[in-house]
Structure formats: C-alpha cells, structure tokens
C-alpha cells in the first residue's frame, strides 16, 4: 500500500471511473464525460438492480455491474451519488474495499468532507456540488478538496465535471451559500420565466409565444452576462432608454423590492441548507 503522504496522480488516459448510485445526476455526469470525450464509456462503470437505470447507462456504453464492490474494485475514481440519508451506510460498506490509490468524489448534498472521510476511512476525497442543469450540460459545479486530495486530483475532477458545465473551486465553508445560489437558483429562474410568460399573456400574447419569448429572453440575457465582459448593471443600463418602456418596467420591479426578494431567497435557502447539514 502506498505511503499515507503520497498520492500518485491518476492519468486521464487510463483513468477508470465508477459511480456508486446510478440516479439522474450520475447519469448526467457519465453522459457528459462520454460525450465530451474526456473518457470513453468502456472506462465507466456503475451498479444498479433496477432495469430502467441499468438500461439508461447501458444505452451509451457504460458497463453496469451487479454490486457496488465490483465498481470499487475496478475504478480509480469513485463518485458517490446516493441520497444523503444513505451515504453513511454506503461509505462504511466501501471502507474495507478502498485503497489509497483511489480518489473518492461526493456529489451528495449537505454532507461534509470531514464526515465522509471519517466514515470511509479515506482522506483522498473531493466534494462537488453540481446543479440540475447538469442534465443538459450546463451545470454550475463547485468543488472542495479534502485533506488528502492533491492539486492534480482537483484538476482531474475539474475535467470530469467540466464535461457537464462550468466548474469553480471554493472552500467547503461556502457550500451552504453555494446551495442557496446555484443549487436552488434554477427554481428561482423557472419561477421568473413562468411569471414573465404570465405577464406576456396578461398583455395579450398567446401562451405558447409568451413562454417561448420568456425562456429565450432569459437564456439570451444570461449569455450576455457571461460573454459580454460587462457588469449586469451596465447591461441593464444599456437597455433602459430615458423615459422608455424598460425603465418603466424596472421602476415597478424596484417598487416591489425585486432585488431584495431574490437576495432574501438565496440567504433563506443557504440558512436552510446549514440547518439540514449534519454538524
């Protein structure tokens, strides 16, 4: 067994990736990794007893095994993608099977690295928080390295999760705030799209047209915020002509406390995330 203080880099060219848990998030990550060419499907494996989940992974070439221990035995990187209430039992089950050459990654919401490391008896751990747009390759993922994870480990995991969207690295203490913003944020935007569409209907638009315009407008505005190099406030000012239609709408949003409401939503979700996390 390798020395406790030496974690050899895992080369992408030979890396074998295993998923413990074969749900929708695991499927999104696996599909993205294959589609982007980061790893071939032949080097990805998982295990599941339900036929529909097995079929979902087999449909794009992933090897579906019968037991979790087979996945661990044949993987360099093991991603835990199970429900928070079961992750402790899963980690304890895997503990005797793990070697120091393996890198563990958790996408389990609300479960801290110190607990994961203790349960698995393994410090080469990285925690990642993706969000639901992973399903279409547009995730916002944040990762934090455990005590035994190396810079190279972080780079490898960034490549894997870069296959399903954008990746940031942050201290784990920020993860509750990440939950409140990017974890819960898609739901806030879905509400905004629905409300914009309702406004269009109220102003006389057919429902289908209103929803299409609202969705595409949010997509286009987000793309401009990412790609223009301008602050969102400047982009807003660029649209708002003196005495025009946009500033009239913005005035109504400001009177209703629109920005404060969104800020409060993020803070409330972050607070709830902290309450739900084991101490």
From TrEMBL:
EC number of this enzyme: 1.5.1.2
Pyrroline-5-carboxylate reductase catalytic N-terminal domain residues: 16-110
Keyword Amino-acid biosynthesis among UniProt keywords: yes
One GO cellular component term: cytoplasm
Domain Pyrroline-5-carboxylate reductase dimerisation intervals: 172-276
Gene Ontology biological process: amino acid biosynthetic process
Ligand binding (NADPH): 68
Annotated positions binding NADP(+): 20-25
InterPro entries: 6-PGluconate_DH-like_C_sf, NAD(P)-bd_dom_sf, P5C_Rdtase_cat_N, P5CR-like_CS, P5CR_dimer, Pyrroline-COOH_reductase
One Pfam family from the record: P5CR_dimer
Subcellular location: Cytoplasm
GO terms assigned for molecular function: pyrroline-5-carboxylate reductase activity
Pathway(s) of this molecule: Amino-acid biosynthesis; L-proline biosynthesis; L-proline from L-glutamate 5-semialdehyde: step 1/1
Highest taxon of the lineage: Eukaryota
Keyword Amino-acid biosynthesis appears in the UniProt entry: yes
UniProt family annotation: Belongs to the pyrroline-5-carboxylate reductase family.
Protein name, UniProt field: Pyrroline-5-carboxylate reductase
Originating species: Cinchona calisaya
